[in-house]
Amino acid sequence: MDHDVLTGDCLRILAEQPAASVDLAFADPPFNIGYEYDLYDDRRAREDYLEWTERWLAAVKRVLKPTGSFFVAIGDEYAAEHKVRLDALGFTMRNWIVWHYTFGVNCKKKFNRSHAHIFYYVADPNRFTFNPEPVRVPSARMTTYADRRANPVGKLPDDTWVLRPQESDAHFQTDADTWYVPRVCGTFKERGEHPCQMPEAVLERIIQVASNPGDLVLDPFAGSGTTLAAAKKLGRRCLGIELSEEYADGVRRRLQRIEFGEPARPVRRKPAVARAR
Ligand SMILES: C[S@@+](CC[C@H](N)C(=O)[O-])C[C@H]1O[C@@H](n2cnc3c(N)ncnc32)[C@H](O)[C@@H]1O
After folding, report:
1. pLDDT digit string (tens) for 15-42?
2. Ligand 1 atom at shortest distance from the alpha carbon of 37
3. Phi, psi (5° rounding) for residue 207?
4. 78 CA from centroid of ligand 1 (Å)
5. Is the pLDDT of residue 267 over 60?
6. Looking at domain 3-275, what is its CATH homologous superfamily?
7. What confidence score (pLDDT) does residue 138 get?
8. Which residue ranges make up each domain of the chain?
């Protein structure tokens, strides 16, 4: 089973990959907001950043299978620009997911940022993988209203994903209709060296719903390797691309610690609301 991270520029490396070979792509590109990476300069001129965005989106499209799905995580500053470009490439949007989290940056003269956008696109609206069963959650009819009309197998999650660390030190809980997942804060056991590591739980949900075991999952901006770690745990093949040798080495070390198909994180039965501040 392949679980690989290649070091270098994703534009160059994607051009070397076979066309129509990837089942699921997840991209969490630099947001162009001045984040401190070791190599990449996250303060590019707007036009330069957008021209580059167009190029890597098209490069992902080339390697995606006609039945493939593409998820893009992006911040407020360039969300609209990414959507316009994804639409122009001929992708079809399935959901505009809002990932709500806390532990964002505290602001003094505006409201604190507490969300990111995750765009869920498919190449063909009539042919794509969507596995509802692994991500189904109990509905409010079941958990709150004891309504006999509730579908006993639960419902699909909402398109707002709530990640409040005050309410859980576990992740998406199977007995809640909203899944609670914290950002990966500095003190968390999951946290590695990378400055903007995503929680594995977000990637587990995406990979479970939009790919099948053995499928190839691509992350052109591997960072700390969250996508690859989740893919390996879930029995998918994965290819990551990362500009920084240091980060790519971190991904390799992270993958070595994971057994292929190892059980996902333990699930807590109740949100710890008593700990909310
Ligand atoms: C937002 S971070 C990704 C974080 C990742 N989702 C995680 O959970 O760890 C973006 C990453 O893209 C990398 N990067 C920037 N430009 C790149 C390029 N042209 N090709 C490949 N990687 C690049 C940066 O070094 C950084 O690690």
Report:
1. 999 999 999 999 999 999 999 999 999 9
2. 25
3. -70, -40
4. 16
5. no
6. Vaccinia Virus protein VP39 (3.40.50.150)
7. 81
8. 3-275
